[in-house]
Amino acid sequence: MGKKTRNRASTADAGDNPRRPCPCGSGKRYKACHGAGDDVIVIRPFEGLAAEPDLVAMREFLPSATAALPVRSGGPVTLASVLPGASAAIVRDNGEVLLGMQVQTRSGDLSADLAGALAWARSAEPGSSLPVVGAGRHTGERLQDVLEPGTPLEPTVHADFAWWLPSESPDPEAQAMLERANSVIMPTEAVTADGVRGAYWVDTGSKAHVRWVRTEDETTLMAALARLSGQGGLELGEGSRYAGSFRAHGLLVPVWDVDREMHSSEWAGPAAEFAKRLDEAVAGLDATPLTESEHRARDVLAGKQITLR
Question: Where is the DUF5926 domain (predicted)?
Fold first, then answer.
């Protein structure tokens, strides 16, 4: 595995075991994901962007969300969790540009995919759509080259996919597609508070969770979580339980099971308090290394890897 200005891994590194998880972080087996090509897989494609945690959330688990993309030049662009038909990009009849995060791709660099889709949309005719984007549409630019790096995303999480159809009288086929998408959507809302970014509440039907995309180095984050565990400070608050974590595009996403009877907004205060505790734990790691019991706690937490359903 090599490293330049961003974390990268050759697919050849995984080729000796095609059944292992793909290094791209998709959660799929290597042979079913990037095992068919020679792409260089960028492990952390959105590194360096203030928008990174929300980009990962929109790619991985936000069902219906949109955000103004902070492009450096050109007209406004709307980023979407998913577009009709899982399109990579759509240019509406009025010229509005939308980019999709949850798309099919064979490329190993999601950042380059999005920049390529944006370049396509800038020159596409109104009413056009781009079904798939991959290395063949890369322009040499990545999101880091076209976005304001210090500007975060401000996603709007929608209760349904009504925003898919700008027309008040869609054709029957489009209406049927909309109804199918709405039937499987899981209620999701952002957890918003000072010091909290990239945290989202979701009701899966049987449980409610808070999923929180963290930007710390994984080793540092796991050590800080282990310290909080030893101090009894790992939960978000009463009615919550730390469930584990999953990896997504180079970042670790801790997950808590939370009381379904509580409104999503009720987790804002506890999340802000947890953020303070976590920051203090991270800051104290250099001065006070983990104790033997904290090392054991870290190993236990590292084994709590969960899978999204």
Answer: 45-309
